[in-house]
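Example 3.
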Amino acid sequence: MKNTITKGIAGQRGTKVRSDCYIEITPKSSGGIKLDFKSKVDVMYGDNIKDQIFEMCRFFYFRHADILIEDYGALPFTIAARFELALKRLFPKSTAEYLLPMHKNNNYKTSFSRLRRSRLYLPGNEPKFFPNAGLHEPDGIILDLEDSVAPTEKDSAQLLVRNALRSIDFYGSERMVRINQLPQGLDDLKYIVPHNVHVILIPKCESAEQINDVEEEVNRIRKKHKIKNEIYFMPIIESAKGVVNSFEIAAASKNIIALAVGLEDYTADIGTQRTDEGKESFFARSQIINAAKAAHIQAIDTVYSDVTNMEGLRDSVIEAKGLGFEGKGCIHPRQIKVVHEAMAPTENEIDKAKKIVLAFDEAKSKGIGVVSIGSKMIDAPVVKRAQRTIELALLNKIIPGNWRKEIEK
Amino acid sequence: MKLVKNAAGRMVPTQVNKLKLTPYKEIGKFRPKGNKAKPPIRTCADYPDDGNKVVKNLKEALKKAGLKDGMTISTHHHLRNGDVLTNQLFDTIKSMGIKNIRWYPSASFPCHEHLIKYLKDGTIHHIEGSMNGPLGRFTSHGKMKGVGILRSHGGRYQAVQDGEVHIDIAVIAAPTADPFGNATGDRGPAACGLLGFALADSEYADKVVVATDNLVPFPCVPWQIQGNNVDFVVEVDTLGDPSKIVSGTTQVTRSPDRLLIAEYVARFIEDAGILKDGFSMQAGAGGTNLAFALFLKERMKAQGVKARFIRGGSTQYLVQMLEEGLTDYILDGQTFDLEGVRSMRENANHVNTSPFTSYNFHGKGNFASIVDTAVLGATEVDINFNANVATHSDGYLLHGIGGWQNCLFSKCTILAIPSFRDRIPVIVDEVTTLCGPGELIDVIITERGIAINPKRKDLLKAVKNSDLPIKPIKQIYEEVNQLCGGAPAKPKINKNKVVAIIKWVDGTVIDSVFEVKQ
């Protein structure tokens, strides 16, 4: 059958487009590469962009074509992703990948139990949000391939997210990607696993089997690319079935670091509306916290969607913390600081915890089995909670590392 | 055109439009001698005893004022982008067959695109003021007959005072005026706030015309412009479009990155020890600046600190600070929104200023250097802290200088800017056009970090223990270049053709703007 596609098109165009570009490639049988080029940054970067396009043509052994480029100040990682996509749409069987160099700051690792108070969602096909996201210091940045990407642009986001993982400095935030719902999401993995993704978010997760499928594919790609780093999973529970199976899911792999809950889909699934009060999801949230704790992993709450209501957000984080959640999803950078503040232990909690931990230390050093403050005996779980509070206060940088000395003074 | 290298290392002409120029020396090194320019002696016997100076229309006023080819006509930008009068003024001048006018506005706006046809047909010879938007492109393409001259608000006053610019006819748009010529900007359908930019013109011009769309019986109170300096009063249908003169709402930025910059500015001012009882600051009207004022307000409340005065660009946010008792005074240079105009009418502590009190170089001091901190913007800053506000990185004229150069004299001058815009770096190796020397610029605050001028050892020391992201400017520069895919190419300019010059506050020439090759 004759190939009917005569033009490869990628990117975005229009007066409102910023930091992106639009590319049309029409292959020819002769005549070399002809560029029709318009750019908002022509004076400053016109030659640079043309060089990049010619270099990519050479890389893909692509010699004859009319190429239209409308550039709206796209950064090199975006231009590369759009150009590669336009070619890929012309030649779907091509497997060659044009990889930009890995940014020197992008090789850091994560850890199983790091703080995950905030995770900032970025739409995977919107390059303008990428470069500055890390400056707002979320614990994690999620490049989203799922709900924020139009079904027709999934291939587009795959390449853009891959390039972002290599080129964009995340400034120390945990590097996360939300893949598509399975089985479609399995196809996303080859674009992220080789590029130092730290955590893969698995949406609408309903069974341990799904985790196993993802893990198997991840391991296959890891082996192929000789990836040594651990890659962690965060299943998102968004359905009644997922809630019922939450412990099985939480315990499905040693690489699961947290269970998250997604309430928009969940409330739709149980046939109700999401309310501010949240009575309708109380069971699901508590169940997920229980499952997570039983599997010794973190429990992470859903997003707060009113980006203008900071007090509402603060209250919602305090409530989530009260239930046992350790993190919250963010859809706007200004939410991050509020989440961190509200998730942190309060001054009162810290003061109490300090006394208990000091009493415990003293009892231990004296070889006494019973911890007490004054005439009051302190139970073991209370000590454990106090130790966790101090740990969190340290991680949140609320108290100095040498807080014991400061108290003695 | 002969170009020489000035003390900042920039190539500048020694003469433009038959005007002899002094190349920039160094800050405070140029001390002109002699006497100030002086207006001719007037006699009240030459003016109507009943105080009625109203004439039929603008044409009549210009005729009576003796309009001739080659004269200098001044206007002012307090009607901002809503200005209708200036366009009508030049329509009238054109209809009278007059040529080669030197237009001396305090600033121009996109609405003045209308005047391009008069620049083309020779009605206007050149502009000395600012060349924004379409006028900027026209000038940058080398199409203006003469060479443009950009001055700061203070520099404009200075040029009038030392006789470099002799204004033949000043046309002052007055939102309210009486037949004697007393005028105010704080009321009337085209209320804009204050008329300070027209003060020098009212005192020094040969002839002064006041145009108003709200003529009231004598006396017009307050009289921001004194009728005793006015020759003619003209009633017009409208001065302009109120919605473009002042906006009902001046919006705080919603961009998370700009908010981050604004928050860093407020935190810096606190951590550097500037935020203490009785401090003073200058804040502008850009979205980032408005947000900064809000963040600072929170910190002032938390610390129980009150300002002695705030200079503005007044907006609803500064007015709230005044009315909540967080500052004793607003010393206002320009009113940006309706709340600012209202407050100016109602609050005795919301005080009018002018370029004379705020910025004047030939005054016995001015307010700008008394201010503890000024937060400003820029189109480019280089790794030596030199900054540009007049041109874009592609070489085109973009903005006027406004009060920006004058404000650099504050005790701590902060430029709050993004490190890049789309793909265009704002932190560069060398500015396209030098408008402010780095030695006056103390702190650069971007979303990627804060750079303190190494000359300010005191500031570096003050924030030593701050957890703000303080970095060398070179580091921010390199980070941005890496992100943008290398340093930007320089604009393609014709180095033999100067299309405009940038004056420093003292009247010397600090840099040239060259023709952009198309």
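Chain B has two domains: 52-245, 256-487. Chain B touches chain A at residues 256-257, 259-260, 393-395, 421-424, 447-448, 479, 482-486, 488-489, 491-492 (CB under 8 Å).
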